[in-house]
Amino acid sequence: EIVWPDRNRQAQRKSERSDQTPIQFLVLGPLTSQISGSRLRNDRQFVAARRNIKGVDPRQPVLFTTYRNEAVMASVGLLYVGAVLFINGLMLIGVIPGKSAAILNFFVGGMQVVFPTIIIAQSGNDPSIIFGAAGLYLFGFTYLYVGILQWTGISGEGLGWFSLFVAICATVIGLAQFGAVNDPVFGVVWLLWAALWLMFFLVLGLGKAGATRATGWFAIFLSFLTGTIPALLLLLGYFNSTVLAAAIVAVVGIVSFVVAWALGRRSDNAGASPTTATIAQPAQSAV
């Protein structure tokens, strides 16, 4: 007698073996916050989790592997947001020239346009996924804009006013993290991004050159607080969005702003050397 193997059972065992790492999610909607930090291992557990999420239709054919792949892409993108904010901050305080920083802006800006496009294409029209991916374009277009301005020497007024638009959108997305999404840490992160992009608007859109160095220092601090550190925690599976963690991020963010403003004012009072002034001049269109 020939005993045929149970293919469904084999597939389930293979899925359980291949999905042993903790799965973390960025800002991909209501489902994200509810299962962030859990150790979902297969489609069956994932579908069961979806049934308990308000506003998410569990009948939609979007399974665990789709969310896992999108989470990894979003986390990798966040890591390089930290990198480009660090480089642009150094450009604003006059450490590196604009054209040198433009190259990374092209790389990261392109990635932040390609990744959300892939995420949306694979979303199965799930609004929670589309909502999270849509916000990533704000950063992708910003960095491409910066790269073009630095490479061509065009003035940055347009980028400044676009930064105001980004700040408004980031505020709305941040508030949504506290309510509909229930992700307090990234609620604070989005509000910090809104504050930073508002400073970009003041420097570039309104010509407040006196805030340039303070904006640069704030960008450097936030590159780690809102980009590099949470991205590494997400990729390693240690990220957990709690009210306490959100409060800590908020306090560190406020302290970072105060320190950045103090450093910016001290640099302005000390005066820039001719070499530093020459480097800082094209950096007026940096983000």
General description of the model:
This protein is mainly alpha-helical and 287 residues long. Helix 4 runs antiparallel to helix 5 and helix 4 packs parallel to helix 6. It is globular and about 50 Å long.
Features:
single chain, 287 residues, mainly alpha, 11 helices, disordered N terminus, disordered C terminus
Q: What distance separates the N and C termini?
A: 71 Å
Sheet-strand content, in percent, reads under 5%
Rounded average pLDDT: 75
Shape: globular
Radius of gyration: 21 Å
Low-pLDDT ranges? 1-7, 13-47, 49-66, 273-286
SSE string: HHHHHHHHHHH
Number of strands: 0
- Based on secondary structure, the structural category is mainly alpha
Q: Treating each run of at least 4 consecutive H or I residues as one helix, how many helices?
A: 11
Q: What's the main sheet like?
A: none
Helix content: over 70%
